[in-house]
Design a protein that fits this description.
homodimer, mainly alpha, Tetracycline Repressor, domain 2
């Protein structure tokens, strides 16, 4: 009922409640009939909840194309698991009916030894294609490419082009966009099929071309390509080599995955979790991520930050005499260093997100640092006023003076760290999100504690 | 050169360097010829860098459709700015040539008074349509909807359908997907145009239907609809009322914006910045966000957290006597509360991201809390071992015992806060990302400080 309210999916709505019963009573024939009318992603959802051995049986029952769609939507653990239950012949049939880009992705994610076994199962042409696609750098757009597009020669007539589409369009990943090439397979234009349909059939393809297209190089980073998709509102993008030979196309569904992955990586990295190790994605339920993987993703940063915190402790030790004299100073330590850290993490977050959206450039850093000085100064004064009363209440006017001065300086320094750190990581070709909140907080701790206790020593002499 | 390496855009590559010269020397005629061959987003980029008055001149020169595409890609400040330079007649012509969904978005973002003026400029039918689209709840999919789709009657022949497309397809937002309806405008199916093209023209539309479609309700939240798009790899989705009457369609380009916005909101909120107030998007350069807006977005949370930190200070004050006796205890305060906060922010980040990706459900909370106890316990022991040496070095075996016990308990408590807080916010219909790192860190401070000093008091008696 919940699902029905969220969206209307005719097929699943009618039948989902009965499916698990059919599986339990092993009514494979009925099951085949019912599931054959489902969408692949719904069957994938089902697979996440039932016994893998039942999945294997169902996978064998389904029409070949649907089976491979279902298979390509599964997470890589599940795929590996199922492959172990299938015979070589069955594996071959599934792999062969996958789209080339989904095949590349599968090979990418499986263990090397299994990938080699699978590639060996393929016929020569497909195996060559797979090795070629895997030859592009990791995270390059070449890895997401499919060679299943419709190419049209520029000197054909509209009628000839339509004939070609009717003949070869069935296997293409999309026929919404057609790619116009010359005899050397140079990309000349891309045109939407609507323009072909709306044109008179005896005219030439040339006559409806506008030589107006965007293409990306196969070596281009996937995140960069995602920005091109967004900027030009595209649903498919041709991929070429540096001489603008058409190599393949990339479609929007793969790009959405890239955007989500990029965001997940930024988001987790920004909290000092090694995102790659956890492997959050659309399919893997968080409760199924293995214990060990989570520990591994978290412990390195926790240890690094622990060591930095020990430095802060060392600084405090250096000021032990003033603390012993004015124990009340300790009660302001948390508010001073935390506010600095919070301000710093706020400014870092704005910079990191702007870098991801492409609305800030490397050269802006000096301007932004200057502006941050003014912003943080303003915030610092407000925070200083906020804490001043407590300085009186817990201490006296001198303590209040120390605390207010330290607050203003700390907020400024914390914020400046937050602005500059993402740029520094970027400069050294690291993800700017490595400037995580915990890292900024810890740096603010070290510097903030030092400044506070130094000010106290100087002013309370 | 930089840009050329990144992607190949035939038109801009050739001419960008000369454009600014043409503008400066006011060669409007040449400019019109050149820019008419450009993509709208590239002209938008150009507009961000030149004088608004030049933009107005260029906008008037461009072909109507291109002008409205350029206009719809601009940020809302710029749009408002340009509207002020144009006459009512010019404004009307631009607004009328916008796609209905872009028009809704423009009206949404402009000040109310300006929106009213613009709606009054529209002819009765368009003005009615605009008011209708604005009638859907904010952030509902209805607001992103366009009524410009191609609807096909189920009893037509393929030939009749193609004829209809040739006649009405030109104005549709997409003809890649066709929507099959009955005489009461009930949605019966959606079929890709490829199926129509590949079918024999004398067959009926009915014969190529599979009654296999996903549609969303117009009231559905945009983020939920984005998940439907992702799950089924769609490029367009029909929108219906609760009786499955077809109201319009939503296309993938608008959905990508939704995904990016959602991620920006999560990301900034998670660092205690009020995202809405900053208004980060694809177009607004971060350096152009006004000073005041940034202060406003940051100060509320900084103040709230400051007050919570004052509580931590109060707790320390309560333990002043033990601190005065063992000043060395203070040197471990940062490492203990920070590690707890860091562990908590790590666990929160995983939960929040999994909630955004839809790979965790409300009912999982109890299981995840239990597992977190084990994970955090393990991490706590490692961290305890890490800090134990410093306990000896700075203090003695008793101090070491206090610090190690406090560390283990603090990491566990910090992590549990990180797991449970996003669920609590979710339960109360707040964005789970409100469980920000600064908030978790501050809570971990309060509790961690209390526990540490309590343990110290008990064990060092």
């Amino acid at each position: 009922m919940e699902e029905e309210k969220k969206y209307f999916n005719q097929i699943v709505k009618l039948l989902k409640p009965d499916i698990e019963e059919l599986i339990e009573s092993k009514q494979w024939h009925t099951l085949k009939e019912v599931l054959s009318t489902w969408y692949a992603p719904d069957i994938t959802d089902l697979f996440m909840e039932i016994d893998p051995r039942d999945c294997v049986v169902i996978l064998r029952l389904l029409p070949k194309e649907l089976a491979s769609d279902v298979f390509s939507e599964l997470d890589s653990n599940m795929q590996e698991n199922l492959l172990n239950y299938l015979t070589d012949e069955q594996v071959k049939s599934i792999i062969l009916s996958l789209d080339p880009d989904d095949r590349t992705q599968l090979f990418e994610e499986l263990p090397d030894s299994l990938t080699r076994r699978l590639i060996n199962l393929l016929p020569p042409e497909e195996s060559k294609e797979a090795l070629q696609l895997l030859g592009y750098p990791e995270n390059s757009i070449g890895r997401l490419m499919t060679p299943d597009y419709v190419a049209i020669k520029h000197y054909w007539t509209i009628e000839e082009a339509m004939e070609h589409i009717r003949k070869f369009g069935r296997d293409a990943e999309t026929i919404d966009m057609l790619y116009i090439i010359d005899n050397h397979w140079h990309l000349l234009d891309d045109i939407p099929i609507r323009r072909l349909i709306l044109a008179e059939s005896n005219k030439s393809v040339q006559s409806i071309m506008d030589h107006h297209f965007v293409s990306v190089n196969a070596e281009m980073d996937q995140e960069e390509a995602a920005k091109v998709f967004e900027k030009y509102n595209l649903t498919a993008l041709p991929v070429t080599d540096s001489e603008v030979h058409l190599l393949g196309i990339v479609t929007i569904d793969d790009i959405i995955d890239v955007i989500r992955e990029e965001n997940t990586e930024d988001f987790t990295k920004y909290s000092a979790v090694e995102a790659d190790s956890v492997g959050l994605d659309f399919i893997t339920k968080i409760k199924n991520v293995p214990f060990k993987k989570i520990i591994r993703a978290r412990i390195t940063w926790l240890f690094l930050l622990l060591i930095m915190d020990i430095i802060t402790g060392g600084i405090i030790q250096g000021f032990e005499s003033i603390i012993a004299k004015y124990v009340v100073l300790v009660t302001f330590l948390p508010v001073l260093v935390d506010t600095a850290g919070n301000a710093g993490s706020q400014s870092a977050t704005l910079i990191i997100r702007a870098l991801a959206l492409g609305t800030v450039e490397m050269k802006d850093w000096i301007y932004l640092l200057g502006r941050e000085f003014l912003i943080a100064g303003t915030l610092g004064v407000f925070m200083g006023l906020g804490i001043s009363i407590m300085g009186f209440v817990r201490g006296n006017i001198f303590i209040a003076e120390v605390v207010v001065s330290a607050m203003i300086i700390n907020v400024i320094i914390g914020s400046l760290i937050g602005v500059i750190l993402p740029f520094i990581f970027m400069k050294f070709k690291k993800d700017p999100a490595t400037a995580s909140t915990p890292l900024i907080t810890t740096l603010a701790d070290i510097i903030g504690t030092g400044i506070y206790l130094l000010i106290a020593t100087l002013m309370l002499k």
